[in-house]
Design brief:
By secondary structure, this protein is an alpha+beta fold. The chain has two domains: 20-246, P-loop containing nucleotide triphosphate hydrolases (Rossmann fold, 3-Layer(aba) Sandwich), CATH 3.40.50.300; 259-373, Beta Barrel (OB fold (Dihydrolipoamide Acetyltransferase, E2P)), CATH 2.40.50. It is 22% helix and 37% strand. It is built from eight helices and 21 strands. The chain has helices at residues 63-71, 113-123, 128-141, 157-169, 187-204, 215-221, 239-244, 249-254, and strands at residues 23-34, 37-48, 52-56, 78-83, 86-87, 98-101, 175-179, 207-212, 224-229, 232-237, 259-261, 264-268, 271-276, 279-286, 294-295, 299-302, 307-323, 327-334, 341-347, 357-369, 372-373. Strand 20 (357-369) and strand 21 form a beta hairpin. The radius of gyration is 25 Å and the shape is elongated. The two termini are 48 Å apart. Bound molecules: adenosine-5'-diphosphate and magnesium ion.
């Protein structure tokens, strides 16, 4: 299967940084109101050619609405959809170089796997021998050659999803769109199929937007993640940056577990600490700007793996010890501080039992003001 780069037939606006041919997908101030309120709110997004980007966010934040506007199933109230430098905002779905994979597969039960995949090509009057060749090659790509004559009802959920993927890929789209494609699969299969999708996406080098509400899924398969909230993107960055340096308290709370403390960060004689109530918890690293001796953020956020228990620091009491297999989760109270209960991930067996006196210190703490990282 070839995904050749065609030159856009519409002149792209001049852009110093990237030429039109280098771009994959660009959304500019995309806007949609439904039921009298903005569902997608002046959204900007750039996806580099060949990259896979996840739209990640809670249910109802506007992910599907965004995807439907990219595909052309829904008309935006404002803004533009630009693919490889060509503005496709006014084109109907069938004239856009996009293909979509749906959550519920949407396969025709009475048609064979071959016919399901060939359907779109037949509509477009692609010659029969070419259809056969393209369907076979795409089935090979998703590893389902042996099911070419099967009915979708006779194959497993994971295989059905791969047929749906094949049906999208056979159209050789420039942009592949997937809307929560794995949510009907059980947990183990979900992990395997998402790795398959990532592998195929990278092999073809196809620009892809993958919608999910599952942070684990988003972090593990994307080049970049766009975290959405209320129709807007709160942060757009690499999975590592999203996890390590959440731009907002919303992102920090949605992606991974986090502790938030109503504390103040201080630096004196070179050492850093979070002051919370009458307690002083030592910190190794933070986002406190160089040269500042203290910040009044409203929130200090600490990942559970950055809470060190029993390694010195502020006095604390162990409230609960929860074995989690390869590690132990602990709930600790910082002595002398109210609203300062922390969750910590420590080595399995490293802790005693609930009620023990201990200590806490932080490996890394981030300070937020008005919900944004300082
Ligand atoms: N036709 C519609 N009329 C009114 N509200 C709608 C309509 N379609 C979707 N919505 C609302 O838009 C919001 C975002 O929907 P959606 O894009 O499907 O979210 P997501 O895919 O992130 O879960 C939801 O609150 C939904 O109820
Ligand atoms: Mg949705």
């Amino acid at each position: 299967m070839s995904h050749t780069t065609e030159r856009a037939d519409v002149a792209a606006p001049a852009d110093a940084a990237t030429s039109a041919a280098d771009r994959g997908l660009r959304l500019t101030r995309l806007h949609k109101e439904l039921g009298g309120r903005p569902i997608v709110d002046d959204l900007d997004l750039d996806v580099d050619k060949g990259q896979m980007v996840c739209l990640l966010g809670p249910s109802g934040c506007g992910k599907t609405t965004t995807l439907r506007m990219i595909a052309g199933f829904l008309e935006p109230d404002g803004g533009a959809v630009i693919i490889d430098g060509a503005d496709v905002t006014d084109l109907p779905p069938e004239r856009r170089p996009t293909a979509m994979v749906f959550q519920n597969y949407a396969l025709w039960p009475h048609m064979s796997v071959f016919d399901n995949i060939a359907f779109g090509l037949k509509l477009r009057k692609v010659p029969k021998p070419e259809i056969a060749q393209r369907v076979e090659s795409v089935l090979e790509l998703v590893g389902l050659t042996h099911h070419i004559r099967s009915r979708p009802t006779r194959i497993s959920g994971g295989e059905q999803q791969r047929v749906a993927l094949a049906r999208a890929l056979v159209q050789e789209p420039k942009v592949l769109l997937l809307d929560e494609p794995l949510s009907n699969l059980d947990a183990k299969l979900r992990v395997r199929v998402r790795e398959d999708i990532r592998e195929i996406q990278q092999r073809l080098g196809i620009t892809t937007v993958f919608v999910t509400h599952d942070q684990d899924e988003a972090l593990s398969i994307s080049d970049r993640v766009a975290v959405m909230n209320g129709g807007r993107i709160e942060q757009y960055a690499s999975p590592m940056d999203i996890y390590r340096s959440p731009a907002t308290t919303f992102v920090g709370g949605f992606v991974g577990a986090t502790n938030t403390l109503p504390g103040r960060l201080v630096r004196d004689s070179g050492s850093l600490a979070v002051v919370v109530g009458s307690a002083r918890v030592p910190v190794e690293t933070t986002n406190l700007p160089q040269g500042e001796s203290s910040v009044d953020g409203d929130i200090v956020a600490v990942r559970p793996e950055d809470v060190l228990v029993g390694e010195g620091g502020a006095a604390a009491s162990v409230v609960r010890v929860i074995p989690r297999g390869h590690f132990t989760e602990a709930v600790v109270d910082i002595d002398g501080a109210e609203d300062a209960q922390l969750r910590a991930y420590v080595d399995a067996g490293a802790l005693g039992t609930a009620g023990d006196s201990s200590t806490v210190r932080f490996r890394r703490a981030l300070v937020y003001r008005d919900g944004s990282l300082l």
